[in-house]
Amino acid sequence: MTITMPPILQVENLYKSFDNTAILKGVSLRLHQGEIKVLIGPSGSGKSTLLQCINCLVQPDRGEILLDGTAVDRTSKTSLCRLRQEVGMIFQDFNLFDHLTALNNIIIPLRKVKKICRREAEKRARLELEQVGLADKTELYPAQLSGGQKQRVAMARALAMDPKALLLDEPTSALDPELIGEVIAVIKNLAARGMTMLMATHQISLIATLADEILFMEQGSIVEHGSPSVLLAPGSNSKSQGFCDRLNELSDGRE
Amino acid sequence: MQSSISIVIDALPYLLSGFFNTAAIVLMAMFLGLLLGIGIAVGLVYGGRMLRFLLGLYVWFFRGVPVLVLLFLFYFGLFPYLHLPINALVSVSVVLGMTTGAYQANIFKGAIIALPRGQFNAASALGMSTFQAIRTIILPQALRHSIPAWSNEYSIILKDSALAFVIGAPEIMARTQFVASRTYQHLSLYIVAGLLYFLLTWLGVTSLRYLEQKVKIPGYSHHGMR
Ligand SMILES: Nc1ncnc2c1ncn2[C@@H]1O[C@H](COP(=O)(O)OP(=O)(O)OP(=O)(O)O)[C@@H](O)[C@H]1O
Ligand SMILES: [Mg+2]
């Protein structure tokens, strides 16, 4: 039964160039219900570009994006809006709407996109903020929140839209070390609830403990993929292992 | 021989009606400019090439031609040519409105461009249309940040409105000049005219500063914000 289910999100042969420089060179991947895949790789390898191409914030030059097995028509505004509703996005620098309270950051998209009435939207927004431990911060503006709190509001906002999958672009990289834990806790909680996720991250604890599969990107291609238990096994000599070793050295050096 | 004080007092009601006419001209001009400015700014930032080109021409035209020339062009030229029965006061409001529209467009465009790209991206990523993102996310922020520059524009348009005198719109300058040419009390009358302009500047700038405080985003500062 489950074998015949199409992937929730499928990316086929994605290409993207900026100014004649190829940034993505034929990337393909599949995300099944409840799967968590982690994108790692050196800076500039195209992880952010790939994530932004998947929900068409950046228009890919070539390739297909399939939602539940159906190719998304990137020329149609309605199918783009649908893709973006079903595939939520978490940004490195949060991107909360600066002029709205935490609560309204969640209410506004619910009302505008999902056309939910004010009362229902507010109820949902409060629930989502509670889920990320911010029930007491509803009336605060982004500038009054810490980085970790902002990222949790951003997650609550994305989750309120009931996405089928979540794209996360280095969700903890802009945070002070002491604030990373609270965001990781939310991500782990999401994983436990079975959320499908594709996440670029340099956070070892997320890579090693959450990933069903590691996708190693280099110069616009996925050059290595496999489960952490295989790729990160001692003596596996994989690129992923080398990369994670260097990350470990870096974070050890800092502590 | 009447004293200058009593001449000014006698003329005051007449000058005050000029004061209200000036206020009306400036309010209408600023409002028209606001509508035009927002529309043009949005078109300049988000529009296609053709639209951007046409809007660019509009801005260049109204920035490049002196207001006095525009006043004559519209009031004596274009409006009669089109058989539009528009009086001097409305003509001035329209011409000043179109002029300040070009300048306000640049103010708003700058404010929109200065917003972090992530604001628009986040709105798109949530499934909002471009129109929804502009209306609910971009403009509320850009307009807030534009208030200081807009207040500047208000005082400039207020002073430019004195040019309306040349086509006989019944505003402060025209009325003062009318009384002064008959009573020869130039000094005291133009002091009063200056004070009336000053009062309007003060009223406008103070209300805008109040508005700025009122819509300020709590905790937000322009310094060190990404
Ligand atoms: N809008 C753009 N215009 C031109 N070049 C771009 C643009 N966006 C990204 N690039 C280039 O594409 C390459 C890949 O960038 P990308 O941000 O996807 O890398 P990344 O893997 O996310 O890196 P990091 O780990 O530093 O976040 C970089 O060389 C970058 O300079
Ligand atoms: Mg990146």
Description:
The complex is a heterodimer of chains A (255) and B (226). Chain A is an alpha/beta fold and 255 residues long. Chain A is 40% helix and 24% strand. Chain A has a domain of 171 residues: Rossmann fold, CATH 3.40.50. Chain A has nine helices and ten strands. Chain A has a six-stranded mixed β-sheet, with helices on both faces. The relative contact order of chain A is 0.16. By secondary structure, chain B is mainly α. Chain B has a domain of 149 residues: MetI-like fold. Chain B contains eight helices and no strands. Chain B is flat. The model of chain B has no long low-confidence stretch (mean pLDDT 92). The chains are: A alpha/beta (255), B mainly alpha (226). Chains A and B meet through α2, α3 and α5 of A and α5 and α6 of B. The complex binds adenosine-5'-triphosphate and magnesium ion (MG). Adenosine-5'-triphosphate binds next to α1 of chain A.
Approximate strand percentage of chain B: under 5%
Average pLDDT rating of chain A: 92
Enumerate how many helices of chain B there are, as a single number.
8
Secondary structure: number of strands of chain A: 10
Overall spatial form of chain B = flat
Shape, per Cα inertia axes of chain A: globular
Structural class of chain A: alpha/beta
Largest sheet of chain A: 6 strands, mixed
Name of the CATH first level of the domain at 18-97 and 164-254 in chain A: Alpha Beta
Number of strands of chain B: 0
- What letter string, H or E per element, gives the SSE order of chain A? EEEHEEHEHHHEHEHEEHH
